[in-house]
Automatic annotation (TrEMBL):
Similarity field: Belongs to the iron-sulfur cluster assembly SufBD family.
Highest taxon above the source species: Bacteria
Descriptive protein name: Fe-S cluster assembly protein SufD
Domain SUF system FeS cluster assembly SufBD N-terminal: 13-178
Residue span(s) of domain SUF system FeS cluster assembly SufBD core: 186-416
Length: 457
């Protein structure tokens, strides 16, 4: 057996042992046991594993991630922490976790949010008997641990999580922001993040997931899992903002169940990392459900990012609009695999999938695979993918108008994703993201020119 194989098996063994050492409330023991068992039954992904063909997990073997962050690393001052995740103008209630541990001093607004009676928010560890029963009945019910290795590991390593319930026929205007902040440490460590959202019949709510870090080189492995259940006529605005420093490893999943006439608007943004992988699965279980799934990914340097999406149309009259755009620079690599599966009973389906990519370097790489699998005959579906470089005609036009090449490159690159930002329902999130994303493009041969960032935002 080769040394590389030995290392991967060592990681799997360490992860399983670490899962047995973590402690969750006793009423979650059965879910933890199921997760550990399912994780142990998975074969380690290799280049011959179709869904992991272009994503190498060898980074997991370079350090011992089977440990938590040092206890003294979980306290952080507001002056340092808040600028990393604060979204000015959003006025969100915030639950903040630092290196996997809940930080009450940084969290705010939860009591005021729940006092309205339109939403319930509780950590698993603080749940009362009724909440425990609700969480236990819903948690893991739509996540297929036998198909998603790191979702199983998340369940096995479960210690705490967040339960959100949007109350029946209530409209919640105040967003809930769940923040997972990591800081650089001398030792490698794991963060296990779990979120369960239940949108009851006729409810409406907003959830923002923010994954951020300080700027120092990261040593964390973040394994995050989000489950969303939308009952009849419920509407959920969901944002997943992955803005961590480039050395972090992040393995994430989002699993959704939609019942009749429910509406999901979900937006994802991902900066690249050492390894970043997000699996998104949406199940249309009730007629008339609509899913609007958008996202942008922007790896650079030697970063890697991978989005795998799967939309399961199981019933008639459901619609999906999925658009992902990527800008890949330097020697970075990106992977996009989008699948829409139309089951035999899903007549009258309307579904579109589009993936567009812009390569800013001859060494940048994208592996894209849009898929349609259709077993119904009365549907309207389309899918497509494009890979291109900056438009030379547009570049020549801008140069002829006295715009510098560097500024023209920034404007054309940012314009490629700005259309998706413009469509976001919450303007304050647009304003938060624009300067962050714009700053990725303003690095010329002499370093960063902040005047370019100001110009396009």
């Amino acid at each position: 057996m080769t040394e590389a194989l030995n290392q991967t098996f060592d990681y799997a063994a360490q992860a399983a042992q670490f899962a047995e050492q973590t402690s969750a409330p006793a009423w979650l023991d059965s879910l933890k046991a199921e997760g550990i068992k399912a994780f142990g039954e998975h074969a380690w992904p290799t280049r011959k594993t179709e869904h992991w063909k272009y994503t190498n997990l060898s980074a997991l073997t370079k350090a011992n991630f089977a440990q938590v962050a040092p206890a003294n690393s979980t306290d952080l001052s507001a002056d340092i922490a808040k600028p990393l995740y604060e979204i000015e103008g959003l006025n969100a209630a915030q639950l903040v976790f630092v290196n996997g541990v809940f930080n009450s001093s940084l969290s705010s607004g939860i009591d005021a949010l729940t006092a309205s009676g339109s939403v319930e928010v509780v950590r698993f560890s603080d749940a009362n008997e009724a909440q425990q029963k609700a969480i236990h009945s819903q948690l893991g019910s739509i996540t297929l641990n036998d198909q998603h290795m790191f979702s199983a590991l998340n369940a096995g390593q479960l210690e705490d999580g967040v339960f959100v319930r949007f109350v029946k026929n209530k409209k919640t205007e105040t967003p809930l922001q769940v923040v997972h902040l990591t800081t650089a440490q001398d030792q490698a460590f794991s963060v296990n993040a779990r979120l369960l959202v239940v949108s009851e019949t006729g409810s409406q709510g907003v959830v923002v997931e923010s994954f951020v870090s300080d700027k120092a080189s990261q040593t964390a492995l973040v394994n995050s899992l989000t489950e969303c259940k939308l009952e009849d006529n419920a509407k959920l605005f969901h944002y997943r903002l992955q803005l961590e420093q480039e050395d972090i490893i992040h393995l994430g999943g989002m699993h959704v169940e939609q019942q009749a006439s429910s509406q999901l608007e979900s937006f994802h943004v991902g900066l690249g990392g050492k390894v970043k992988r997000v699996d998104i699965v949406v199940n249309h279980e009730g007629a008339g459900a609509h899913c609007d799934l958008k996202g942008v990914y922007l790896p650079q340097n030697n970063q890697h990012i991978d989005y795998h999406t799967c939309i399961e149309h199981k019933v008639p009259h459901c619609t999906t609009d999925e658009v992902f755009r990527g800008i890949i620079a330097d020697q970075a690599k990106a992977v996009f695999n989008g699948r829409i599966h139309i089951h035999p009973d899903a007549q009258k389906t309307l579904a579109e999938l589009n993936n567009r990519n812009l390569l800013l370097s001859n060494k940048a790489e994208i592996n894209t695979k849009p898929e349609l699998e259709i077993y119904a005959d009365d549907v309207r579906c389309a899918h497509g993918a494009t890979i291109a470089q900056l438009d030379e005609k547009a570049m020549s036009y801008m140069l002829s108008r006295g715009i510098s090449r560097q500024e023209a490159e920034v404007m054309l690159s940012f314009g490629f994703i700005n259309e998706l930002l413009d469509d976001l329902a919450h303007h304050s999130i647009q304003e938060k993201l624009r300067p962050i994303l714009a700053s990725l493009f303003d690095k010329g041969p002499f370093g960063k020119d902040e005047s370019l960032t100001r110009h396009i935002v």
